[in-house]
Amino acid sequence: MKLIILDHYSQASEWAAKYIRNRIIQFNPGPDQYFTLGLPTGSTPIGCYKKLIEYYKNGDLSFKYVKTFNMDEYVGLPRDHPESYHSFMWNNFFKHIDICPENTHILDGNAPDLQAECDAFEEKIKAAGGIE
């Protein structure tokens, strides 16, 4: 792991967004080769997501052949609840880019068997080739 120390949140957000952008571009995703991205939620990555949205809107980056897997979700909170991470990701990132909804993966915090949900999620990550 490489540790990057920057003085300001905006610098860290931009550095992270550029890193993700460059990794996606270098990977050169296409219909036969998707880039798989693990994503966090909460307030910390919002600056990074805004920069990624900017890259998309400027035509510098596409998410058409990107699959995402989010790290967490609240248990017992409906996915359409404004405080769910599902809502958070759609409102703060996914609805602003060209990602296909079926390529976004967020745990179901209302699954009847949470362990089975986690196991199935892990299998989806493996089937996607792991997280880049």
TrEMBL record:
Alphabetized Pfam families for the sequence: Glucosamine_iso (PF01182)
Organism superkingdom: Eukaryota
Q: In which pathway is this protein known to take part? A: Nucleotide-sugar biosynthesis; UDP-N-acetyl-alpha-D-glucosamine biosynthesis; alpha-D-glucosamine 6-phosphate from D-fructose 6-phosphate: step 1/1
Q: Which UniProt keywords apply?
A: Carbohydrate metabolism, Cytoplasm, Hydrolase, Isomerase, Phosphoprotein
Query: Would the keyword Transmembrane helix be found if you checked this record's keyword annotation?
Result: no
Q: Which top EC class is given?
A: hydrolase
Cross-referenced SUPFAM superfamilies, in alphabetical order?
NagB/RpiA/CoA transferase-like
Q: Which GO terms describe its cellular component?
A: cytoplasm
Enumerate the catalysed reactions. alpha-D-glucosamine 6-phosphate + H2O = beta-D-fructose 6-phosphate + NH4(+)
Subunit info here reads: Homohexamer.
Q: Which family does it belong to?
A: Belongs to the glucosamine/galactosamine-6-phosphate isomerase family.
Q: What does this protein do?
A: Catalyzes the reversible conversion of alpha-D-glucosamine 6-phosphate (GlcN-6P) into beta-D-fructose 6-phosphate (Fru-6P) and ammonium ion, a regulatory reaction step in de novo uridine diphosphate-N-acetyl-alpha-D-glucosamine (UDP-GlcNAc) biosynthesis via hexosamine pathway. Deamination is coupled to aldo-keto isomerization mediating the metabolic flux from UDP-GlcNAc toward Fru-6P. At high ammonium level can drive amination and isomerization of Fru-6P toward hexosamines and UDP-GlcNAc synthesis.
The identity of this protein, by name, is Glucosamine-6-phosphate deaminase 1
Q: Which organism is it from?
A: Panthera tigris altaica (Siberian tiger)
Gene, per the UniProt record:
GNPDA1
